[in-house]
């Protein structure tokens, strides 16, 4: 492998991550606005983003804090929302598990949905890539995302309520996850897991402190695992 190939995969990663800027910017702006409206200072808002680096979990925690939910509920719910990161890590291990420890630690810190979605699709398309090429692609995908997430979090906190309501920044949250999840729904277990989680979360929407999300996440994982087990048994029998 030459330096040029590593550089090439890095820039492929930048290209794969760049389109997500369109939804990441309003997503970050919205978090900055919501965080300051919930009572966080500019420094607290920025620290929240740079330490946690998990948009969905941050929104969940802020919402629960504004509802004066018990601290244990805030922590457990935010961790549950971020359980997907553990699954992301498990699926990336075959690709990046041979990287040096420091590199893997940095990959874990930079683990965001958009970078993961871009990387896992690229790794499946290019099974011949070396670990260094895969690492280069991953950090390429992160490059246009994390700095802008932090920057526009600060901008959102600074401008606060001066953003006109007609800008409808809240569209960014569902659009972001639809853009990431839709390309991954390529197998029956994936679809079963997604549909089950959606159905359970809607059925349990009445529960306080968004506890329905916890149950929905667990139900989705169980349903997906069961569907995959059934398909494996069917294939073995055939």
Automatic annotation (TrEMBL):
<feature type="transmembrane region" description="Helical">
    <location>
        <begin position="135"/>
        <end position="160"/>
    </location>
</feature>
<keyword id="KW-1003">Cell membrane</keyword>
<feature type="transmembrane region" description="Helical">
    <location>
        <begin position="105"/>
        <end position="123"/>
    </location>
</feature>
<feature type="transmembrane region" description="Helical">
    <location>
        <begin position="191"/>
        <end position="224"/>
    </location>
</feature>
<feature type="transmembrane region" description="Helical">
    <location>
        <begin position="72"/>
        <end position="93"/>
    </location>
</feature>
<comment type="similarity">
    <text>Belongs to the AzlC family.</text>
</comment>
<protein>
    <submittedName>
        <fullName>AzlC family ABC transporter permease</fullName>
    </submittedName>
</protein>
<keyword id="KW-0812">Transmembrane</keyword>
<dbReference type="InterPro" id="IPR011606">
    <property type="entry name" value="Brnchd-chn_aa_trnsp_permease"/>
</dbReference>
<keyword id="KW-1133">Transmembrane helix</keyword>
<keyword id="KW-0813">Transport</keyword>
<feature type="transmembrane region" description="Helical">
    <location>
        <begin position="12"/>
        <end position="34"/>
    </location>
</feature>
<feature type="transmembrane region" description="Helical">
    <location>
        <begin position="46"/>
        <end position="66"/>
    </location>
</feature>
<dbReference type="Pfam" id="PF03591">
    <property type="entry name" value="AzlC"/>
</dbReference>
<feature type="transmembrane region" description="Helical">
    <location>
        <begin position="167"/>
        <end position="185"/>
    </location>
</feature>
<keyword id="KW-0472">Membrane</keyword>
């Amino acid at each position: 492998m030459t330096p040029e190939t590593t550089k090439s995969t890095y820039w492929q990663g930048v290209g794969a991550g760049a389109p997500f800027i369109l939804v990441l910017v309003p997503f970050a702006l919205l978090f900055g606005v919501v965080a300051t409206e919930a009572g966080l200072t500019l420094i607290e808002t920025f620290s929240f983003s740079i330490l946690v680096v998990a948009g969905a979990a941050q929104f969940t925690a802020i919402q629960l804090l504004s509802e004066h939910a018990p601290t244990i509920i805030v922590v457990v719910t935010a961790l549950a929302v971020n359980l997907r990161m553990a699954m992301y890590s498990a699926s990336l291990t075959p690709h990046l598990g041979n990287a040096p420890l420091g590199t893997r630690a940095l990959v874990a810190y930079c683990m965001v949905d958009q970078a993961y979605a871009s990387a896992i699709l690229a790794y499946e398309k290019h099974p011949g890539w070396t670990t260094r090429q895969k690492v280069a692609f991953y950090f390429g995908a992160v490059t246009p995302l994390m700095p802008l997430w932090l920057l526009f979090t600060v901008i959102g906190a600074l401008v606060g309520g001066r953003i006109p309501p007609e800008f409808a920044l809240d569209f960014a949250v569902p659009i972001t996850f639809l853009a990431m999840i839709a390309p991954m729904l390529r197998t029956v277990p994936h679809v079963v897991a997604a549909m089950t989680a959606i159905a359970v979360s809607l059925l349990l929407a009445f529960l306080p402190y968004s506890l329905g999300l916890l149950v929905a996440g667990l139900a989705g994982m169980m349903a997906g695992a069961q569907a995959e087990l059934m398909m494996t048994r069917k294939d073995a029998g055939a």
